[in-house]
Specification:
It contains 17 helices and six strands. By secondary structure, the chain is mostly helical. The chain starts with 13 loop residues before the first helix and ends in a 16-residue tail after the last helix. The mean pLDDT is 95. The structure holds arginine. Pathway: Amino-acid biosynthesis; L-arginine biosynthesis; L-arginine from L-ornithine and carbamoyl phosphate: step 3/3.
């Protein structure tokens, strides 16, 4: 059944019908569509546009459709889109009274409502997953609060702790959650009642449906209400940033689990083997997360491009929002869950971290700080320590392995207390560095 056959004299071409149909993907909105319709019908009755009896008949029809879909008794197929599917099924079930459902409504405000409701619910779910991941990261850091090398340019730089390194990601995912919640706050306005673009002559009550459906308020402008997809762009942008963070963390896990680093061991359950090289254990979960990041960026770019040339108000181009958004949502949720599980089972190699700390002159900056405390200008101290590093390299030792005579051979300011000052564990008892613990 079509909802719009009246003015047409020819059948729709089959190719066109398939091309135009969004049902294969927008069937995912069945619950939001039915919930929105129920609120709409309640509002129509309250406003005297439908009778109480009509309202009851339509509501119970819609409720049984929802129940049948959820119990697998009703397959969603054979219509142009989910809105058409629900309405035609309703008419089949309850007869002519079902034709009154669409009073004072267009599919334009209907689809805008469905997508906002879907975005709200799922955005909250992603925010909860970010919270969980943040907790896992914190626990992993606290359980493995060992010294490790911190890097810049992927070269050993200064001593940090594994916990401090992990808590950097905790901060990132914390911001991601805030960003997402902020976007949910901005989108929290109901477009139902905007009609096709210009409202309706009936005295409907948009504030009533907005409240019933859990929105803060109805949208201010009808034309904007039906053509706004900013909230999807904002969510795709938040998803892209989440994926960028997940990808950076994945990259570290891949590097850290290599034989060259051996800082961590990814659990067998999240790795795979090679079909030819029997010794291989590959960090596929992390690599897939890194790879899928491109897909989510693609959805953001695709959606921005789709929206950029569309005149007001609704245009069919906007139907393209769904596959891109659904795919990005499914990708980000899959990546968040697998990262969470992978981190829960990650083993951290304390001893390897410790020997890496010993090997990279990671206390060189502290030696310079020591000289500054003795009154040497930092730029001069920097040069002196550079000479000490050359000396160590020629001898194949660490700075703390040099004798006081050897240190004094480079600069006279060193006394016995240098060894405590540059001890890797002691470094954290100084100034702002305490916060690294
Ligand atoms: N399937 C459409 C979409 O997803 C629903 C709205 C159609 N409205 C219209 N006037 N053709 O955007």
């Amino acid at each position: 059944m079509k909802l719009w056959g009246g003015r047409f004299q020819k059948e729709e071409n089959k190719l066109m019908e398939d091309f135009n149909s969004s049902l294969p993907f927008d069937k995912r909105l069945y619950k939001q569509d039915i919930t929105g319709s129920i609120a709409h019908v309640q509002m129509l009755a309250k406003s005297g546009i439908l009778t109480e009896v009509e309202k009851e008949q339509i509501m119970s029809g819609l409720e049984t459709i929802l129940k049948d879909i959820e119990e697998g008794k009703l397959l969603i197929e054979g219509s142009e889109d989910i809105h058409t599917f629900v309405e035609s099924n309703l008419i089949q079930r309850i007869g002519d009274v079902g034709k009154k459902l669409h009073t004072s409504r267009s599919r334009n405000d209907q689809v805008a409502l469905d997508m906002r409701m879907f975005a709200k619910e799922n955005g909250q779910m992603v925010a909860d997953m970010l919270e969980d991941l943040g907790e896992t990261i914190k626990r992993l850091g606290e359980e493995n609060n060992y010294l490790m090398p911190g890097y810049t340019h992927l070269q050993r730089a200064q001593v940090v702790t594994f916990k401090h390194h992990m808590m950097a990601y905790n901060s990132m995912f914390g911001r991601d959650k805030k960003r997402l919640l902020n976007c949910l706050d901005i989108l929290d306005e109901s477009p139902l009642g905007c009609g096709a673009l210009a409202g309706t002559t009936h005295s409907i009550d948009r504030a009533y449906t907005a409240e019933k459906l859990g929105f803060k308020k109805p949208v201010d402008n009808f034309m904007d209400g039906v053509s706004d997809r900013d909230y999807l762009l904002e969510m795709l942008s938040s998803f892209s940033i989440i994926m960028m963070h997940l990808s950076r963390l994945s990259e570290e896990l891949i590097i850290w689990s290599s034989q060259e680093f051996r800082f961590v061991q990814i659990d067998d359950a999240y790795a795979t083997g090679s079909s030819i090289m029997p010794q291989k254990k590959n960090p596929d979960a992390a690599e897939l997360i890194r790879g899928k990041t491109g897909r989510v960026y693609g959805a953001l770019m695709g959606m921005l491009t789709t929206m950029k040339g569309i005149p007001l108000a609704y245009n069919k181009d906007m139907q393209e929002d769904k596959q891109q958004f659904f795919d990005a949502l499914d990708t980000v949720t899959a990546c968040l869950s697998i990262m969470n599980e992978m981190l829960k089972t990650l083993k951290v190699n304390k001893d390897v971290l410790r020997s890496a700390v010993k090997a990279g002159f990671l206390n060189a900056t502290e030696v310079a700080d020591y000289l500054v405390n003795k009154g040497v200008a930092f730029r001069d101290a920097h040069k002196i320590v550079g000479e000490i590093v050359i000396l160590c390299e020629s001898k194949g030792v660490a700075i703390e392995d040099l004798s006081l005579e050897e240190l004094n051979g480079v600069d006279p300011n060193f006394t016995e207390d240098i060894y405590d000052f540059i001890d890797y564990d002691q470094v954290f008892n100084k100034g702002i560095k305490r916060e690294l613990l």
